[in-house]
Design a protein that fits this description.
Largest sheet: 8 strands, mixed
Oligomer: single chain
CATH class of the largest domain: Alpha Beta
Order of helices and strands: HHHHEHHHEEHEEHEEEHEEEHEEEHEE
Structural class: alpha+beta
Number of domains: 2
């Protein structure tokens, strides 16, 4: 959330930030409403002072004129205070629609085509046969069941069967083990339903409510573990000595994909429900730039050890999200589809989320609390990594080798083979 005082002092920064992100921001409406609220507040304070003076001037029983004046001032003050309350509520609501300005290090660009490749790892796998896309491999292996998923839940849902389900479980367990045993994250298993204020705290609401699944009692199915894990410390003051605080969580995630009509309609790609392992970090403002590099390194390490050819992109301004100050996308190469698949976004938010969620820390005893900086990144998004594994490790017979790092989790299975 943007501090109102910052917007007053430098509105052009937020106008430019929104424009560079190709998003709208009600900066002028906020400034006009704020000016009106300040004028009204001045009037109310003047009337309160006048009422105190008029009341102190009464000696004995007040005259009809004095009573009338005091009554008129009281009514005007009450009406002004009520109107002021409505204005403050409206101001806070409007501020929720102002995007976080991109970090100065983010390259200027209109859309994803202008994001900046930072590095590549590995080489595209070479085949002496025509590689198949994951959905054809999965059909041959008997591990996908999209028809029965549609019968149960509708389009954009999937069922994994047999060794496919086991491979996904192995992948999730390995990702969590690396995060907790090697990279220093503390594992949490959060609820899948959260309150509205938690969605506001991480900036999914109010702007993206159309993308969310909501229950009748105003709870939301989480679109990512970022939401409940970030809100673990909502309205708390943390001990600065405990920072950085680093958590990892595996959850299912739910998204309507309302803006994705016609995109990736085949296969295990763009689903309403999918699994993800998410890393979340709470850090000091001074360390957040370095923490983003570390978070991205943690995600990259996973792809390297899986042996997946991938690249890292620094998103340009027009491709950076509403709440993010800076983002690196990690994209895995899917040789069967001949395309890059985004498998992780690693982002730093500055204090944007912390202000919305009220997450602060005290640097030292007796010092004034400050807002933490938050970061999160996928470690990793499961369906697309699963797809990249199938396509990278496929053989001419339609079988798929299990990546070496996952074999200890597969009970001796080293290769998925077509039935029969």
């Amino acid at each position: 959330m943007i501090p109102l005082q910052d917007l007053r002092e430098d509105p052009d920064r937020f106008r430019l930030g929104a424009r560079n992100k190709k998003q709208s921001a009600p900066v002028d409406e906020i400034l006009e409403l704020d000016a009106s609220a300040r004028r009204l507040r001045t009037r109310v304070e003047q009337e309160q002072a006048e009422r105190r003076r008029a009341s102190s001037a009464v000696r004995g029983k007040p005259t009809d004129e004095q009573m009338g004046r005091l009554s008129a001032l009281k009514e005007s003050i009450q009406a002004g205070e009520a109107e002021l309350g409505d204005m403050e509520t409206r101001l806070q609501s409007l501020l929720l629609y102002v995007p976080n300005p991109p970090d100065p290090s983010v390259p200027l660009g209109a859309d994803e085509t202008e994001s900046l490749p930072v590095r590549h790892w590995g080489e595209p796998p070479a085949f002496d046969f025509e590689p198949l896309p994951h959905h054809e491999l999965g059909e041959r292996l008997g591990i996908f069941d999209f028809e029965r998923a549609a019968k149960i839940s509708g389009a954009r849902f999937a069922i994994l069967r047999g060794q496919g389900a086991r491979l996904q479980r192995a992948l999730i367990t390995w990702l969590l083990d690396v995060a907790t045993l090697e990279h220093g994250y503390s594992e949490v298993t959060p609820p899948s339903l959260v309150r509205r204020e938690c969605m506001v705290g991480t900036a999914q609401l109010p702007k993206f409510e159309d993308e969310a699944y909501r229950t009748d009692d105003d709870l939301f199915l989480i679109p990512t573990a970022e939401v409940p894990v970030t809100n673990l410390y909502r309205d708390e003051i943390l001990d600065g000595a405990d920072l950085p605080i680093c958590h990892v969580a595996h959850t299912s995630c739910w998204r309507r994909e309302a803006g994705a009509a016609g995109k990736d309609t085949r296969g295990y790609i763009r689903l309403h429900q999918f699994d993800k392992v998410e890393m979340v970090r709470f850090v000091t403002p001074e360390s957040s730039a370095d923490e983003l590099e570390l978070l991205t390194h943690h995600a990259e390490t996973l792809l390297r050890r899986l042996g997946i050819h991938h690249r890292v992109l620094l998103l340009c301004t027009g491709d950076t999200g509403f709440a993010q100050a800076k983002t690196y996308d990690l994209e895995a190469w899917a040789p069967g589809m001949r395309r890059w698949l985004e498998v992780s976004s690693c982002s730093v938010y500055g204090d944007f989320q912390a202000r919305r969620a009220g997450i602060r820390y005290r640097p030292a005893a007796g010092e004034r609390p400050r807002f933490v900086h938050t970061l999160n990144g996928s470690g990793l998004g499961i369906p697309r990594v699963f797809d990249a594994i199938l396509e990278t490790y496929q053989g001419a017979d339609g079988g798929v080798d299990v990546p070496e790092v996952l074999r200890p989790y597969m009970g001796g299975v080293t290769r998925l083979v077509p039935p029969g």
